[in-house]
Specification:
single chain, about 240 residues, alpha/beta, Glutaconate Coenzyme A-transferase, five-stranded mixed sheet, three-stranded mixed sheet, 7 helices, globular
Length: about 240
């Protein structure tokens, strides 16, 4: 097996959390989630639909991005992806500003309906490719989308997993927090503890290493998936897979 890239490990790990679903939607600036959704679709034997915002080949929306919200509200979207400038231990996401809201250190484009999608999509996978105390914080400075809600609030959707460039967390819904699921190759639990700004649960047993894709999966990622994702993310496909 040739050297496996971090991106390929992340694509494989995310895709395994999409198996068996009917419709996966992917928003903007999401090449790794998009590739993961395409990989999961190849394993579904045609039973999975993947909608990637901005794509011409893999986009079933006829009315632009706003159709995402219609489909989600109708219960026709099984999984979606969210990131943020900050994510905290309660799975709150900040897409607006860091620091004081009136005089922020940094301001971002906005929440883009993330709060709504977080409430109605059953399986929201959070992803952040900078795993540091700066991004994974004890408490976000602004809540664009709340991770959890009170029991008397109707909420069929919510966080399912959080994947970073160092590890994979799953959501403990009873305790409303993250629990470490696996650590990517080359990283350690001690490193995760040091580089995470929020507290999280550790399993009773030894934390496993995130699975590396086997040769057959790598062939699909570097072949069919790479070609398809290059249509919407050519720079990513060129950098990771060498597609020109």
């Amino acid at each position: 097996m040739s050297t496996v890239l971090l991106e390929e490990i992340l694509i494989n790990a995310i895709s395994k959390n999409l198996d068996g679903l009917g419709h996966i939607a992917v928003g903007a600036s999401s090449p790794i989630p998009g590739a993961a959704a395409l990989l999961a679709r190849t394993r579904s034997n045609g039973s999975m639909r993947v909608s990637i915002l901005g794509s011409e080949d893999n986009n079933f929306f006829s009315d632009g991005g706003k159709e995402i919200f219609d489909i989600a509200g109708q219960g026709r979207m099984d999984a979606f992806f969210l990131s943020g400038a900050q994510i905290d231990g309660k799975a709150n996401v900040n897409l607006v500003a860091v620091g004081d809201y009136n005089q922020p250190k940094a301001r971002f484009p906005g929440s883009f309906g993330s709060g709504y999608l977080y409430f109605v999509v059953p399986r929201v996978i959070l992803f952040r490719l900078e795993h540091t105390p700066r991004t994974l914080v004890k408490e976000v400075d602004f809540i664009s989308a709340p991770g959890f809600s009170d029991g008397d609030i109707y909420r069929p959707g919510g966080p399912y997993k959080l994947i970073t460039d160092r590890c994979l967390f799953h959501v403990n819904k009873q305790k409303k927090c993250f629990e470490l699921e696996s650590v990517h190759p080359g990283h350690t639990v001690d490193e995760i503890l040091e580089q995470t700004g929020f507290e999280f649960l550790l399993p009773n047993n030894e934390v496993p290493e995130t699975e590396t894709p086997d040769d057959a999966t790598l062939k699909v990622i570097r072949g069919e998936v790479a070609r398809e994702i290059s249509e919407i993310y050519p720079s990513f496909a060129s950098r990771v897979f060498g597609i020109k």
